[in-house]
Specification:
The protein has 508 residues and is an alpha+beta fold. The chain has one domain (31-131, 157-339, 374-507): Outer membrane efflux proteins (OEP), CATH 1.20.1600.10. Helices cover 60% and strands 12% of the residues. It is built from ten helices and six strands, in the order αβααββααβααββααα. It has helices at 2-28, 87-99, 101-125, 172-238, 244-278, 307-310, 315-336, 380-447, 452-486, 499-507, and strands spanning 69-72, 128-140, 152-168, 301-304, 341-352, 364-373. The strands form two sheets. A four-stranded antiparallel beta sheet has the order 2-3-5-6, covered by helices on one side. The protein has a two-stranded parallel ribbon with strand order 1-4. Helix 2 crosses helix 4 (172-238). It starts with a helix and ends with a helix.
Length: 508
């Protein structure tokens, strides 16, 4: 019993000594080699376009024709799609954010990155302690040692605990953890970007569905008017008042209009299928809301972040910055491999010929070892350092490319809002004129001053104009959704509390 307590006490002392030595050496290791990551400077511009934006867009006296104001320095709400005014769109996006397999995959990938970091941190920051028990049967012949006597067989039992800690004096382990933490942040920003893209795709698809529904109605009305005109023309040709060529020309026009309807219906059904899949359900599982333009509202105030704020908000830019951080840390790992590494280990156990004597007095064995390794000739290590530096340069260039593409994306969205508002105003004026023409010819027809065919032709022209008007109305909604997406949407889902910052506190 006293032997067991002695062994346990000795084990405690050896383990404590090894752990204290490792932690003390870790504190003496100081800063890690390689460059410390510095966030890239924000773009040195105050706007997105060469020409200044107007205070507000053009307006038109029609559905979705209100003026929109640009609010500089303002960010979007977290649920920015609610500004479009459709309760059914809100419900569909909320459902998709829960049921989307794309988001489920991104969440699982983030969890994987977090666990990989935790596993590496546990293996790197703390000593490894292993326990082992073994038994072996041996036969020894004394003649092999020049001794006399018969061969003997015996059993050897051993039990022990070992402690091992690798101390990287140059801080390569810390740089490796820093790289893993940055890649975890990258996965988090990817998840934020997937949420933003999903919401924007659903909003755009819903607006497209509403546009197609309006265009189908206008095209059907135009086809009805053309078919009626064709019937009257055929009757005129039958009695000899109209030439047969006019009948053929009008019939061609009717069939061209009729051919446009299946194309529009195909696009509408494909859009409904897309909406179902984006919401995380099979296309045939349930009905997709039959969106129409009159259920939407045009946002009156649009957020326009400064470029310096945009780079801190857009998930794709944050993801590129995280990859740049990881590449910087990887370069530090490659540099650290050129410096010495120190391994500390200690073990305590016992050996005996019987299990009963395994923990008896005099059976204890122990060892403490420290090993310092310095690479002297390894041509591969400098090559790894140069490769890591090239990867760092590539990550920096990729970050700049992502930033420039984001600025272009915002500039395109802002200009689209301005020009498409002017286009809608023009189409609204054209529609008003077309409707006034129909009313004028209808009054003339009632007085006998115009033929019914003239009224039908005016109605066709009005429906053609209405088709373009519907497209212009939907485009303004789509432009608004595109700007929200270009601005990075609302507040990130989880990017505010950076995993890297938390990891840095744990490492320090």
């Amino acid at each position: 019993m006293n032997g067991e307590r002695g062994i346990a006490s000795g084990l405690t002392r050896v383990m404590a000594a090894a752990i204290v030595a490792g932690l003390a050496a870790g504190l003496l290791a100081g800063c890690a080699v390689g460059p410390d990551f510095q966030r890239p400077a924000a773009p040195d511009v105050s706007g997105y376009t060469t020409a200044p934006l107007p205070a507000q867009t053009a307006s038109a006296p029609t559905l979705l024709g209100g003026a929109q104001r640009f609010e500089a320095g303002k960010g979007a709400d977290a649920r920015w799609w609610r500004s479009l005014g459709s309760a059914r769109l809100d419900a569909l996006i909320d459902r998709a954010l829960v049921a989307s397999p794309t988001l489920a995959s991104a969440k699982a990938t983030l969890r994987q990155a977090q666990e990989v970091y935790s596993a590496q941190a546990g293996a790197t920051l703390y000593p490894q302690v292993d326990a082992g028990v073994g038994a072996q049967r041996q036969r020894m012949n004394p003649a092999a040692l020049g001794l006399s006597g018969d061969a003997q067989e015996f059993s050897l039992y051993n039990a022990g605990i070992g402690v091992h800690y690798r101390l990287d004096l140059a801080g390569g382990n810390r740089r490796a953890l820093e790289a893993l933490a940055a890649r975890t942040d990258y996965r988090r920003y990817e998840l934020d970007g997937a949420r933003l893209t999903l919401a924007a795709n659903i909003a755009t698809a819903a607006i497209t569905r509403a546009r197609l529904a309006g265009q189908i109605a206008a095209t059907q009305a135009m086809l009805d008017a053309q078919s009626e005109q064709l019937d009257l023309t055929r009757e005129g040709a039958r009695i000899g008042q109209i030439a047969p060529d006019e009948v053929l020309a009008l019939q061609t026009q009717v069939e061209q209009t009729r051919a446009a309807l299946p194309v529009l219906r195909k696009q509408l059904e494909q859009t409904e299928h897309l909406l179902a899949v984006l919401a995380g359900q099979p296309p045939g599982a349930g009905a997709v809301p039959a969106f129409t333009l009159d259920e939407f509202r045009l946002p009156a105030d649009l957020p326009v972040l400064l470029p310096s704020e945009l780079v801190r908000r857009r998930p794709d830019i944050q993801a590129a910055e995280a990859l740049l951080h990881a590449a910087t840390a990887d370069y530090g790992v490659a540099v650290a491999k050129l410096y010495p590494q120190l391994d500390l280990s200690a073990s305590l156990g016992s050996q005996a010929l019987t299990t009963g004597a395994l923990f008896g007095a005099g059976s204890a064995v122990w060892s403490v070892m420290a090993q310092l390794t310095q690479p002297l000739f390894n041509p591969g290590l400098p090559a790894q350092k140069r490769a890591s530096l090239a990867a760092l340069d590539a990550a920096a260039a990729n970050y700049q490319a992502v930033v420039l593409d984001a600025l272009r994306n915002v500039a395109d969205a802002l200009r689209a809002l301005d020009h498409d508002a002017q286009a809608l105003a023009a189409w609204a004026a054209a529609d008003k004129a077309a409707q006034a023409s129909v009313e004028s010819i209808r009054s003339q027809y009632a007085l006998g001053a115009a033929s019914y065919v003239q009224l039908l032709i005016a109605s066709q022209q009005a429906q053609q104009t209405r088709t373009s008007l519907v497209a212009a109305q939907a485009q303004r909604l789509a432009d608004s959704a595109a700007l929200y997406q270009a601005m990075g949407g609302g507040a990130p889902g989880s990017g505010d509390a950076s995993n890297l910052e938390q990891a840095g506190k744990r490492i320090d």
